[in-house]
Fold each of these.
Amino acid sequence: MAKRMVYSFGGKKAQGSAKMKNLLGGKGANLAEMTNLGIPVPPGFTITTEVCIDYMKKKTLPGSLKPEVKAALQRTEKIMGRNFGNIDNPLLLSVRSGARSSMPGMMETVLNIGLTKKTIQGLIKQSGDQRFVYDAYRRLIMMYSDVVMEKAAGIESKDNQGIRRQLEEIMDRMKQDKGYKTDVDLKPQDLEELCDQFKARIKKIIGKEFPDDCYEQLWGGIKAVFASWNGKRAVSYRRIEGIPDEWGTAVNVQAMVFGNLSKSSATGVAFTRNPANGDNNFYGEYLERAQGEDVVAGIRTPAPLNEYSKSDQNRNLCSLEESMPELYKELDSYRRRLEKHYRDMQDIEFTIENGCLFMLQTRVGKRNGPAAVRMVLDMLKEKSISKEEAVMRVSPSQIDELLHPMIDPKVEITIRPIAKGLPAGPGGAAGQVVFSSNDAVSWTKLGKKVILVREETNPEDVEGMRAARGILTARGGMTSHAALVARGWGKCCIVGCSTLNIDADRKVLRIGEKTIQEGEWLTLNGTKGNIYTEQLPMIESAEENVMLQEFLHICDQIRKLGVRANADTPSDAQRARRFGAQGIGLMRTEHMFYGKGCEEPLFRLRKMIMSKTEAERRKAVEELYPYVKKDIKGVLEAMDGLPVVMRLLDPPLHEFVPREKSRLEQLANDLGISQEELTQRAESLHESNPMMGHRGVRLGITYPEITAMQVQAVFEATAELIKEGKKPHPEIMVPVVAEAKELITIKKMVDDIYQNACKKYGMKKIPYMYGTMIEIPRACLTADQIAQTVEFFSYGTNDLTQMGFGFSRDDIGGFLQDYIQKNILPEDPFQSIDQCGIGELIKIGIERGRSVNPKLEIGICGEHGGEPKSVHFCHKVGMDYVSCSPFRVPIARLAAAHAVILDQEPKKKVSKKRKKRKI
Amino acid sequence: MAKRMVYSFGGKKAQGSAKMKNLLGGKGANLAEMTNLGIPVPPGFTITTEVCIDYMKKKTLPGSLKPEVKAALQRTEKIMGRNFGNIDNPLLLSVRSGARSSMPGMMETVLNIGLTKKTIQGLIKQSGDQRFVYDAYRRLIMMYSDVVMEKAAGIESKDNQGIRRQLEEIMDRMKQDKGYKTDVDLKPQDLEELCDQFKARIKKIIGKEFPDDCYEQLWGGIKAVFASWNGKRAVSYRRIEGIPDEWGTAVNVQAMVFGNLSKSSATGVAFTRNPANGDNNFYGEYLERAQGEDVVAGIRTPAPLNEYSKSDQNRNLCSLEESMPELYKELDSYRRRLEKHYRDMQDIEFTIENGCLFMLQTRVGKRNGPAAVRMVLDMLKEKSISKEEAVMRVSPSQIDELLHPMIDPKVEITIRPIAKGLPAGPGGAAGQVVFSSNDAVSWTKLGKKVILVREETNPEDVEGMRAARGILTARGGMTSHAALVARGWGKCCIVGCSTLNIDADRKVLRIGEKTIQEGEWLTLNGTKGNIYTEQLPMIESAEENVMLQEFLHICDQIRKLGVRANADTPSDAQRARRFGAQGIGLMRTEHMFYGKGCEEPLFRLRKMIMSKTEAERRKAVEELYPYVKKDIKGVLEAMDGLPVVMRLLDPPLHEFVPREKSRLEQLANDLGISQEELTQRAESLHESNPMMGHRGVRLGITYPEITAMQVQAVFEATAELIKEGKKPHPEIMVPVVAEAKELITIKKMVDDIYQNACKKYGMKKIPYMYGTMIEIPRACLTADQIAQTVEFFSYGTNDLTQMGFGFSRDDIGGFLQDYIQKNILPEDPFQSIDQCGIGELIKIGIERGRSVNPKLEIGICGEHGGEPKSVHFCHKVGMDYVSCSPFRVPIARLAAAHAVILDQEPKKKVSKKRKKRKI
């Protein structure tokens, strides 16, 4: 290791800068940057992440580190005018971790390093505050024994049985014995005694003396911070956040400053703008005479930073602005300087030692969705950031927050969920539990809010699902029926919660030992998958959020991908338009049979399905025709001027067979056949693997009359709308295609019906496009043949993922969790496109398709179309548009803009080939 | 059309040759070849297939054809010394079709063209035989009116209602009126009157006179033959045989010679060797004083050609060898010359006119399997053909004939099947119908032969399936459970016969209006899928056929692909070895639980499946261990010295859940849980799409103890065999892999178990290979990652076809027939690899796999491994071996040799890269 390992900062000069985050970690880089900006920072130095990586490999620190540290320490001593280990004028140090990106609380910190029997006396003399010094020593012993000694000794601390807990117990016992209420009551001599007791206990447990050498303390601290990179907590945090193991952490060694030294000492945290709503106001809180950990510990209520930060809880306390106006002014000037410098809202920490202000940290502040949008719009107006920066600073999940009601986060944080499921439909919902679709409908009519709880849902539950505030199921995955329907409506939904034990007959739900009767309250957090008993308060969404619209228009200026919505009814189509959809990418013609008011068409559909002869079926199809046409016309009208992709009948017929006995009876009666005969017909539709069975175009080939009816409805609806002065753009999409000849066969039929429709309406032509869903692996592989027969491809990535992985989305629950836990899969491939496998199929399909038909319009209509990483992938592989549920259209608009910015470099190469084509 | 359109032959000189089959058709090319060989052939000419194709397009003959025909006709007249249309010395002509490959009976023929009122008189004078001439005229009128006039008039003849039938009725009535028994009784004047009656009826129906102009007759005949290329029969024959529409037919116009002219006239057909058994003996039959059609009509029993051709039916008749020894000798000399020239057995037709021998046709003779093998071995010994030719002359289906009993073809041809299904297991079987597995077993014990008839089969039927002679199911496809199991055993099986209506409770089977009770006889032709009532006679197979062995050894010398077998038990493995398998490509470890004597392990397996906790499961797994080890050891021992690929547990667990109530009760009792609990556990295993559910490696990941048990059994069995002096070569195969990390996870477990086994047996190493099944599309796409973790790939093309097409093999019955009929798919992709789609996936997998691991061993173990076209594909894409059911091993050996020869050219390029690697 010939490279520099240690970077000093302090005295308005630093060797590092904010650009060196990879080497110095976020904290270290920003400390250097602040120093260079002339902002007062306690001096110190950063040991690089490279040293950490090296230490992880070799389990020993490089020999040349010691002299570098020594030299840096000397610079620190010089700036502070104190010396480490010096008896009269001792310098104390903090040792803190600092990775490239923030991992709050995941790694270790040791404060007050440098206190030994000797320096304690010097510090007492110097500060004149014996209590302060012994309290600092007490803190050092507690932290150090826990962080350094226990770990070095290889003693794993299990659930509060570790040394720290034992020392806390000693302290509690002393307080109890002496009748003290809080730590503050402890006298200096109490603390001194406590330190002795601590050291004795440590000796007993670890078999080693607490080190009384300041350098031993320092090196122990440095090694412990490095080692904490591979601690259990840090590793699992990295798994969740996707942070690579190879980054390593830096170590920041800094002169201690004390917010608890005197009455004119304090410590606080602040945000340069309000992180909860984006207001351009300084916002924060502080504690007089305290150290940072005291703020976190919540022993005292922190005071507001200024007038603006006052709330009902702290209005009676004196603000920093009031108590130390000069220092507040100084702090506010740093706030302005930092925000101007970093051009983003900062989260800062400060300490005031004896009337002297020090900045301990600055970093980009976390914010919620509304705040994020507001801040970037403000900063754009202030001209401090570019459009691209504005777009990049808002995350898709922040947009999502704006679109759904949510549980009040202040309340939610205080309560434990009783169960967790898969977060299938985002947002929050509270309601009374019901166990059937009918109950959900009737209770809602009575003005009640309900949560519908089902083992799993099927099309017969749709009315109840629409009525309910939220949906909770015990089975199914992220793309199960419940999840798909709920997401389509933007409804809160949790699925696959396997700890639920539902007894729908007795109307009771068991979760572990807890029993919930019909009518009791549940609250769902569909964004996280958390389930709570009781009714938690909600924050409502702002569907027509003006700032959001403004922000999304900026995204639209940047993105290349078109964004359409999946919608099945005129009202869904209208909502999609409001959310900015540029067309319908998927209208599932069969979805008109689900839900309220659909009894008539559903009944006729069932009649069609139960027909045995072609004649029977033709009759049923004719009866069905007016309903289908009306529906198609409605959606085309709602999307006037924009394209609507209409998918021909897709699911296996048995999905429409009624399950309830009463409905079966009714159907048999109306069909004029025996119950036995009906049952037999229904059974003959049963399939072993319906997902790969007789469905989609296969139905169209074997029962051409069904396809013909749908196609006729499209042409006639279109012709009528044109006569009415509208501009319909239907795109007929054939599903489940595996082979080009399937499309040729259907096309012949389409051509005939087209001719008839033109004749009937006296029109020379009726506008339409003919295309196919690409959802079967073979379709990707033979896309060069398929593309010769169609004008567009629309990737159905749900099915493509199913077939490509051989994963039935309904059955994946049995092993998916194990797969993710064991790191076999990074995530659920039904959530985000599996780019290295399924993505390859998609690329092959696009390449082969465009190789013979360069004008081919290519989109995606699977659930992935609204997932940001997948949207980025769709952009990269050259699709024309994505289509997703209306509620995800804003997210897709943002993600598509992100994709352009992230791919800035490659874009230049591609841009000549791909025109901006949004529809 | 500037090219020559007409090719003459006759007078020992011909313009064409045997090489010109594409242009002249098979018949025309061989007539030319025989002429050039100096063999007497009635002179004539061939109009090319190109004229046919042109005529099909333009619906009119090219103008320049007439002079070419005229010139050729003049040459014919000159050779024959007779003139077409001449009154004194008339030449009569035949007009026959002749396509590139033989399409027997599918197209039209007109004989005796040139008979008119005038020429009739001349011919009577010349032949002195009035009866002969009017009989010839009668034949001309019947053929011509049917073939030429009726079709030209656009009258479609429906089911015997056509003109031919009407003329036959007139003839029958005359015979009846006059009290004649056969045609031979008709007097010359009867025939003359008949001709008049015929012509009158033709006039009445068609509204046109029968043409009395010889050229009109000739051109009518030529056009009719061309037109018959697009006749209904010919088109559907081409569909079945895969003959392209673009080939067209040639027309052969030839001078008539008459086998029915005098007592020293005759006609016959013969084979240069016996086509039924391959004996190198001249074999044939003939009729004195007859025309070719009389032999076919079967009015008289034909006489044997020679002593060798005598049989019980014709022993009393005088052979040609006896009656015309000189002519027989001449014929025999032509036989020798033709066979020597064509170097293959010929099927010849000859006519003797007034003591003068003419050859009418020679072509490669059809033969059955045993004959085909015998002939090529003999010809190899005679050194008349090369090894490659020998191999190419035997088709896979001929080999198949040698391996299974078959219905006596002489009997089968006379009987109509009552139903057709999918030919799932080849060969024939006759037996009494039973409807349950138990009945099949108990009836068989009583010495009865049974056919097991089931809606569909499941693992509980396996005992009955083994006991039955044949299996018949109403549902399922070519790779359904019944089909897979039956083929594995070489058992006759027909599946997916949807016209069956099975009432297993009442033990009755309905097919249309026919009712079959338990115990009635059925005969199955599993090669064709035909089902017959009654008991038909069988010809038994010759499993240990010496000639077959000899022939297959020649194939082995040529082929590059290794051939392994799929076998699950020691006895199957032994049979596979006898059939020449070079290893086991697939041992399904779970198959040990099916069938007789497996109650104990099956019970323990079920216990394992029904376990809820890991502890319960571990216990069950331990109990199961000895059975699994014994089984694995048995197969490894049977294959001593050869590799055995052992697949870890593959199917979804619910497949093993018992369906019978009594077994469920027993299981609940033995597990010590309530029936309710057991039912609940069984239900929790239910999956919506089990084929894409929790199976294969997914089970191995979630229940590692099951995998560990199997792997331990492999290592311990191997170690014990080595200690016993054997050479086991186990290959551990992980199924249903979609992602490399699945394999890495399992490998860690394998490594641990390996270390333990080595320690336990005190061995430094235990030989084994680690590999994966490639059966999920994603595995092909990520093969470069997967290949880094394994030593071999084995393609599971059944599942790859399922996932690649999105076709559930159990549910394909609903639409597959429509797909094939509508020409959307050329054939069932589960039968022969879909090369353009699934084949692409396979190629991608091989390329990506070998790109990172050039030594990767690659094979196939899906059902396709024994299908000739698929074997060829496997060879082409560079696999190392195929694996198939033991009964198909000989077929695969042949097909692999065919592949080498067919790919002779590409082979040269590839051969450097691919070493001959058979195992």
Amino acid sequence: MHGPLMSEMTWPEVDAAARAGAVALWSVGATEQHGPHLPLSVDHLIPLELSLRIARRLHVVIPPPQAFGNRSRPLSGGGPSFPGTTSLRAGTLVQVVRDVVGQLAAGGFRSIAVLNWHGENVNLLHEGIELAREAGDLERPDGGGPVRVMLIERVFNAFSEAEMAFLFEDAREGFPGWPAEHAAIMETSLMLALRPDLVRRELIADDRAAVRPFYDLTPTPPEHVAASGVLAEASRASVAKGERLAALIVDRLTAAISEALDPPAAP
Amino acid sequence: MHGPLMSEMTWPEVDAAARAGAVALWSVGATEQHGPHLPLSVDHLIPLELSLRIARRLHVVIPPPQAFGNRSRPLSGGGPSFPGTTSLRAGTLVQVVRDVVGQLAAGGFRSIAVLNWHGENVNLLHEGIELAREAGDLERPDGGGPVRVMLIERVFNAFSEAEMAFLFEDAREGFPGWPAEHAAIMETSLMLALRPDLVRRELIADDRAAVRPFYDLTPTPPEHVAASGVLAEASRASVAKGERLAALIVDRLTAAISEALDPPAAP
Amino acid sequence: MHGPLMSEMTWPEVDAAARAGAVALWSVGATEQHGPHLPLSVDHLIPLELSLRIARRLHVVIPPPQAFGNRSRPLSGGGPSFPGTTSLRAGTLVQVVRDVVGQLAAGGFRSIAVLNWHGENVNLLHEGIELAREAGDLERPDGGGPVRVMLIERVFNAFSEAEMAFLFEDAREGFPGWPAEHAAIMETSLMLALRPDLVRRELIADDRAAVRPFYDLTPTPPEHVAASGVLAEASRASVAKGERLAALIVDRLTAAISEALDPPAAP
Amino acid sequence: MHGPLMSEMTWPEVDAAARAGAVALWSVGATEQHGPHLPLSVDHLIPLELSLRIARRLHVVIPPPQAFGNRSRPLSGGGPSFPGTTSLRAGTLVQVVRDVVGQLAAGGFRSIAVLNWHGENVNLLHEGIELAREAGDLERPDGGGPVRVMLIERVFNAFSEAEMAFLFEDAREGFPGWPAEHAAIMETSLMLALRPDLVRRELIADDRAAVRPFYDLTPTPPEHVAASGVLAEASRASVAKGERLAALIVDRLTAAISEALDPPAAP
Amino acid sequence: MHGPLMSEMTWPEVDAAARAGAVALWSVGATEQHGPHLPLSVDHLIPLELSLRIARRLHVVIPPPQAFGNRSRPLSGGGPSFPGTTSLRAGTLVQVVRDVVGQLAAGGFRSIAVLNWHGENVNLLHEGIELAREAGDLERPDGGGPVRVMLIERVFNAFSEAEMAFLFEDAREGFPGWPAEHAAIMETSLMLALRPDLVRRELIADDRAAVRPFYDLTPTPPEHVAASGVLAEASRASVAKGERLAALIVDRLTAAISEALDPPAAP
Amino acid sequence: MHGPLMSEMTWPEVDAAARAGAVALWSVGATEQHGPHLPLSVDHLIPLELSLRIARRLHVVIPPPQAFGNRSRPLSGGGPSFPGTTSLRAGTLVQVVRDVVGQLAAGGFRSIAVLNWHGENVNLLHEGIELAREAGDLERPDGGGPVRVMLIERVFNAFSEAEMAFLFEDAREGFPGWPAEHAAIMETSLMLALRPDLVRRELIADDRAAVRPFYDLTPTPPEHVAASGVLAEASRASVAKGERLAALIVDRLTAAISEALDPPAAP
């Protein structure tokens, strides 16, 4: 039996999974610079790896991750000036979400979970889901009422204070706020745990923008962007932090998906 | 001399102000339920009132506030089920911002500040500004290079820990997170300070949703939404908190606008 | 009891008004130059003031006026070259109207009236309403059938010949046609009656474009635009004309709204 | 030499005409009911026939007329309920105009005239032209600066009072206003003069809606629409009126095009 | 009785035809260079002429042909560099199709056939039809279920090998593939048969691009485009080929329309 | 050194590759049923695998493949009724292409190749590229003129007759035309060669729709779609055919990319 990657499944296999009540668990991320030590795929690879772990517990089907996200912004991802950062305009992403979510519903999935890992996608995924709903695309084709759609827009909203402390206790400046936590402790740790083959350990180094204003400015002044693309302390990342964080997130998401969408156990 | 409200100014007056280096300071908010004790205009009235205070110090022109914002979401504003909540689709708001910002630039303003007070507008204002820039609409008509645009997307990003403590020290559950801080301590306090005539004090009461998940679910379960529309503790609001907070915000924004856009002092 | 301004009402108050059969009476205008003697808000302030007078007779709720309208055109508003004129592209306005009208219907209003005061909005308001209808957004949430929407696109279509004569009898060139009647007799008179605080009387002066062709030309030749932004005779405006005209319009609109939408009397 | 119809010309012939300074004269109309006696093509056939007459005097090239226009409205064209009325949404028409005008400029025409004959297209043609201009599509490919675009939005704006009197002197109710002058005296007369083969004379009859309000209402009440689709007095139409009117319009348009765009005489 | 051209019919005539079960047979083409010997209208004139022949056998109504199609591409139509080629962007054409097809259904036609003659329109017509269906615009107004829509995207898909041999047997290079068969044997022959008045016989000449790659390149290299706009052998065209081909196509389309949509015989 | 997959590279690595003249080689496909024996990813996996082989010879960077393509159509891919088929609307795909191609150019790539493997994407990729060009997004950021974009829309256009004969010589019905060659000889052979782990050999079986009309019909009659999703003879597929075909395509594409874009050899 192939799965849980939809791209490796045939249509009768997807059909059977959807009929069995599997959740379509779709990762949405970005292709965005993450410093000299992390690949451009961090924002779509992390949710994909987490999804694969969730798939060991719950019956889910994983559609092809959305590798392109909304415009990278200077204060939270370095912005558009880094080669390799490849973004969509907001309207494009909204339409992608509207279409894909609607098509998953048309394919027979009775519940869908969207797992986001890119701050610049906030509000756009919700919009895409709402547009699909308004168009009638989230009604079950079997007449069984609305398809349920779960949106996990910011995973870190699920973190407790204790967990935050563990993550940032040895950081010289403490928790820098989520926007600046880019290519830094959390993401580097997670990549060390989930895809160590893609981390250039020898290139891990701290960096930060000269200033971190609470506002954006266009055109972007150079002092608002760190030259390396690392926006805070990457050097305090560790495999241990990554493993614990990954386990924690998988637990939380598994519990939340079970609670909200009630899928069968993994086959 | 009329001003700083653009709606009360004539075109030669706007022309003179723009030539003098005034900043166009535009409020973007929402028309959204804020419980039984606050009016629907909280999200566009607060930034407007703050702008009027800033106008006492800096030379700014205040275009008509954008009263309609992006879709209210259940976990941060109660969502679309409350009568009176009147929202725009995301694409609509993006285009409004693109057009208005571009027109202010065409009108001769060399710097523009966008002051947002609605979480659901996050990322959309940035998109609108970028679309205007890409279309060439943010080039100064006098050939003087790009118009500078400042986006204040989340004012509370400017708050220090001490200030947060002051605000939430007497709240039974402490700081509930910004999404849930809707029609609660911060906004009620500010309205008590800025527009007390619009606060129904006798109706101030705490409320909260039965559950506060870290994810959204469509269709929205009733337990995700507080029946009154108040998502946390409104009863701990006070005029004193509001005054201190308003003063603090006005100070911060005045300093930030001066730093980033360098307008003349108020005429 | 607050009202009729929706921005000053709470959601339970709006809910009660909608249930009681109140009409949502929405002004749509523009932010457009009106010469050196009138403010940029003429096109959204006049319908708002008229609405407030109607609200003394009929039970209406007044949502935040739409201050930005479609592109000002040279022959009817001076066009885009005047600082302060701040317009939306046509598609933007259409979507704003589609969304707002649909949201008012979703909020429980069983009837909506759209009051326009900007010639360049013609056909766009109708399009927005039709798009909302096509999307199913104008069905009553209580299943009671379609929400009724009244569009008052050109108020002056309601004027009789006698009334036109009164307005223009002492004008040297007579009635110049509605497009050229911009910042001239009608609008200056109405502002003198409705918002005299915003009229710079000492700056009232006649003007007109060197030529008034029956066609538009792009790029706009300078002789098609009056330098002051006044397109005809403003000097023949008077408080008396304004009062009579305002009274007449309020009477006509009150009668028409009653006839078409049958709201209760003002509470 | 073929011409002036672009559809009958080859590309080298169009090239030669554009280089010689010919004006691209494009008709935009509608496919809309015009009662039982006139064909659905009235609104695109009349401007086409007028263009052919202009082409005897001025060097013009006539691109394929735009047969589909914006939504027919009940008070000015009977609305969407008549079989055969085939309309575009506003946004569609705007984009058609943007593209076609831009392409004519790209093809080498240094001046373009758009001749409209459908009230519901008002403002949309202007928007399409402006969008083309903003996109840079109205710059001459030879670097010679902006292409000139003339928009004749309402031909009847060119009529004098004397001419109006001639047209409507024997009408029982006089001039009913342009919106109601649909399939009535003016259009029937013009068709009798320009395309008598398409007029069903035996079916010419007066009609009118039971009421003619100054506002639109959705859903449209039946009494707002004349059952036949004729909105005023068609029986007072005559070949003589049509001939005189056609001659007058051709004279006016020829003079205006000459004045504004200065094309060579017809080849 | 007027017909089958909808532009010559009145609304009651269209109504009667639709009620009688007539098919709306709509031609979609392009305005695109076809060398020095053929007019720009080839792509919308050929399907129109074929439709008129079909109308002698089946009861069809022919709406105004869509004269503007999607962007001409260098390898299949010479591309945008030829004066007179007047194209729409893809999104524009999709919306035109969505609107027109939906309006024909609203007008009472129970079946619609779309006849395309422009390779660059491929997939866009299908999209337009699907968008109309998704919007609910292809439901019969009488509640009789879905309107049937037939899309004839590439007529030559109906040709047999024998027919291909007849067409290209005397061509020096044989069948060059359909994209290159532009303004060449097939189209020139058909025009010689259908509209010989529009063929400049003395200008018929072979041409071809210097290279015919299997890929497109932007910017287009000059060697990818034939200078004359003729992409293959036009000189082997003949009236006989055109007559036979036209007869064959009309037979095939008549049979296919009968089979799929079952209209009455021509009245 | 990581590569050629952009998702595994860091931003400095992409920067270096782009500066060295590497081509961005982007696969665009679909997620579409391919019968019971092939996975849903065939249309994006095949071009990705081919790209990886090309990367052994030429210096290319491979951005994340576009896994979602335009609507599957019944006659060429089975259409939307198969679970797992997950399509985008045409406008969505066009915008994705516009954005991604523009971003690759902004990232410093001086040449881009788009490799398509989904018939329903035809014309849409070209549109996306043109929109990026029109918006100025295909100008090199270093001022070096236009970025070159190669579009390989239909790879099989590069096949010779001899190669077609080899592929289809033992097929009972011969070559069925490319639309019907879905999940059949060509694609099954290629998957057997490129990704044998994903082919369910025991489920390979021939199928075909009961009829194969040359036109589309909406709603789709069941006899137009093969129940299994295989539209022709899959059983004649073989590893040998797949290997030969893959080698041939890689040779052709390598040669074509070299010729058109002239990248360095693989590093």
